[in-house]
Amino acid sequence: MELERSDRWAAIEKLLELKKRIEALESRLGGDGLGDWSPPIDLLDDGDSYRIVLDVPGVKPEDLELHEEGRTITIAGNRSPLEGRFVHAERPAGFFRRILTMPEPIVEGQAQASLKQGVLEIVVPKARGRSVPVE
């Protein structure tokens, strides 16, 4: 019987170590996991711009924040929990933050965002080099 308990604790310790390693990897790859929940994201390359699409049902526009810096886009927000006595709860609530590093430079201050039916869509133009005349 004692052997079974130690096996169980060894398995739990391995799972906890795996959780720490996953969180460290998420942090290095884009900052996911910063917050109470993490909305799924799609990143599309539309040629002259990137399109970021997030599922954020129940999040109000005034509870969303977008920050651009260099090649990095930070999207943060808050979904308020429902009031009442829960019998069963699966939908996450609270703060979230997603940090994305774009594959190419972007034009800061030019992002356009819209929230429709719980889907946040952000369009960020890519920075393009310009020709400089030589005199």
Low-pLDDT runs: none
N- to C-terminal distance:
87 Å
**Compute the gyration radius: what is it?**
21 Å
Total count of helical runs of at least 4 residues: 1
The average pLDDT is: 85
**Biggest sheet record:** 4 strands, antiparallel
Q: Determine the fraction of residues in helical runs and give it as a percent range.
A: 10-25%
The helix/strand class is: alpha+beta
Number of domains: 2
Provide the β-strand percentage band.
Answer: 35-45%
CATH top level of the largest domain?
Mainly Beta
Number of strands: 8
Strand order of the largest sheet: 1-6-5-4
| CATH topology title of the largest domain | Immunoglobulin-like
How are the elements arranged and paired?
Elements: H1 2-29, E1 34-35, E2 41-45, E3 49-55, E4 64-69, E5 72-79, E6 94-101, E7 112-116, E8 119-125
Protein described:
- With 135 residues, this protein is an alpha+beta fold.
- It has 2 domains: 30 residues; 95 residues, Immunoglobulin-like (Sandwich), CATH 2.60.40.
- The protein is 21% helix and 36% strand.
- It is built from 1 helix and 8 strands, in the order αββββββββ.
- The strands form 2 sheets. A 4-stranded antiparallel beta sheet has the order 1-6-5-4, with no helix packed on it. Strands 2-3-8-7 form a 4-stranded antiparallel beta sheet, with no helix packed on it.
- The termini are far apart.
Quick structural overview:
The protein is α+β, with helices and mostly antiparallel strands.
List the keywords.
single chain, flat, alpha+beta, Immunoglobulin-like, 8 strands, 1 helix, 135 residues, four-stranded antiparallel β-sheet
